[in-house]
Amino acid sequence: MSAFRLRHLATTLVLSGGLALGCASAEPTGQRVGTFKQIEGEVWLVRDGVRAPVRSGDPVTEAGRIQTGPGGAASVILKDGTVLTAGPETVMDLSRFQYDSTTQEGNFLLDLLQGSVRVVTGLLAKVNPERFKVQTPTSVVGVRGTDFIVEANPPIEPLHVYLRKHYKDHSRLRR
After folding, report:
1. What Pfam families is this protein classified in (predicted)?
2. Which residues pair with 52 in a beta bridge?
């Protein structure tokens, strides 16, 4: 093979490898099931062991772990209208969220590992309450209500106290 062809082949491989890597990193890691609406303090999305800070407007994907710092809080709205508000020092996994907007069928499972979360349910819990569950290290909560707070290994300050102190405009916590 001539030196020109080898250089051309090497250049092509390097460029195509770079393009492939660029495409892979820009591609979303999962289907968007919701959106971060309000972020306060330190909030991260952990996926495949990689922790990345989030901002308002960022996507929420199924099987993503949402983690807040000591002064952090996050409000997430899901496709069915469910609102999740995580308090400080919270670790929660959106383990399962499937929702068909045409039939309003689906499943929801939130694993709350630590901290507290306020849940204002959307259409999925209204139509299929038996398929809407919140799980903690010590229990599984079957949801029959529309607005509730769950705490697991609670931090020093409970979520309802934090919300009253830090959220001046309570309309943001509602749908």
Report:
1. FecR
2. 45
3-state helix, strand, coil in the chain (%, to 5): 25, 40, 35
Please report which helix (H) or strand (E) contains residue 140, including its range: strand 140-142
Spatial CB neighbours of 69, under 8 Å, sequence gap ≥ 6:
41, 42, 43, 44, 88, 89
Average pLDDT of the segment spanning 98-114:
93
* CA atoms of 65 and 136, how far apart (whole Å): 14
Rounded Cα distance between 166 and 168, Å, is 6
The structure's pTM equals: 0.71
Give the DSSP per-residue string, 4-69. Answer: HHHHHHHHHHHHHHHHHHHHHHHS-SS-EEEEEEEEES-EEEEETTEEEE--TT-EEETTPEEEE-
Closest by Cα among 132, 128, 130 to 108? 132
135 three-class SS:
strand
Query: Are 46 and 64 a contacting pair, CB within 8 Å?
Result: yes
pLDDT over 60 at 165, yes or no: yes
Residues comprising the chain, all counted = 175
